[in-house]
Design a protein that fits this description.
The chain is mainly alpha-helical and 294 residues long. The protein is built from 13 helices and no strands.
Length: 294
Amino acid sequence: MAIATSTTSPTLAARVQRIKVPTVLRYLALIALGTIYTMPFVWMVSISLKPYTDLNQIPPLLIPSRLAFENYPDALFQPMLYFPQFFVNTIYYVVLSGLGELLSSAIVAYGFARVNFRGNRVLFALVLSTMMLPSQVTLIPEYVIFKQLGWIDTYLPLIIPSWFGVAFYIFLFRQFFMTIPTELDDAAMIDGATPLGILFRIILPLSVPAIITCTALSIVSRWNDFFGPLVYINTTSKQVIAVALTYFNVPNQATYDNLLMAAAVVSVIPVIVIFLFLQDYFVQGVTMTGLKEG
């Protein structure tokens, strides 16, 4: 019995060691990558808490000489740069454009996933091909059209186009809808449901991961949108956060990087919170789109 124990014990130890070493290396790689990706945010928070005298220190200080929490109210509540108004503008833009993207994309995707018509696949491929067209290519004709409509310096050029669908969200919705059994549609039609009734009462309630995925992507995209508001909005009080952050950099004047970073930290917190709460649904929504071949 003792001989059997002595022969099997080294084998067990070697087997445990073989299992642990790749796992440790994997975790070390993840920690290293996580550190690399979080360092810019840590540095941003560090600068936001520095007094003005620490900004020009050589070498730079990671830990401030004192925590200057007053940077946050100083940055957010300046009379000329009143950030609560910029937050309200951004939320208004994000909610209306995001709602349009989700509704229109879901309706179009339902047509591609459930309605059999000639040219379905060709038209779907054509929709996906628009993702390869940079927005800058159509910027000038779009600007001319919106100017003729009198929409410049309003939110209409930023919101109205989003109500005509987004190719990537149409793809995500369509792929997810195709994983839902068509027998549910047939049963609902027997009960007298209309196609839109089937979409809103059956398909969408079963597509929560896809909805949350598109919602998260839409919020992040619109919250960080810099180019659109910069082109179409001219009045300072109507601007969004992404553009308002550039107002701290005034030519021929001192740049208060600590105030800029304080405003940037506050502006990025909503995006971080959204992904922390929705990350499980986000991963599920993305992975489920590949379960059904289209």
